[in-house]
Design brief:
Structural class: mainly alpha
Helix content: over 70%
Number of domains: 1
Radius of gyration: 13 Å
Number of strands: 0
Strand content: under 5%
Shape: flat
Largest sheet: none
């Protein structure tokens, strides 16, 4: 199960990065392959947190941020 979770998490982070920033995604391709997944993961996490802060005014943002890590919507 852990391997499945890890694979899905990587795919989710890559998908978030590609959908939110085509130029950043393109730049990642120029890096060595061993760096790509970690960078996608960082971007995916930060992008979701930033989206909650920027786009969910009127919602319980603090609660949403506590639930975000490790989840793919």
């Amino acid at each position: 199960m852990k391997l499945l979770f890890d694979r899905i998490s990587r795919e989710c982070s890559r998908n978030i990065t590609q959908r939110y920033s085509t130029s950043f995604s393109l730049g990642i391709r120029f890096l060595s392959e061993e760096l790509r997944d970690p960078i996608y993961s960082i971007y995916g996490f930060v992008r979701l947190a930033d989206e909650i802060v920027d786009s969910f005014e009127g919602y319980r943002q603090a609660e949403m941020l506590k639930k975000t890590p490790g989840r793919c919507f």
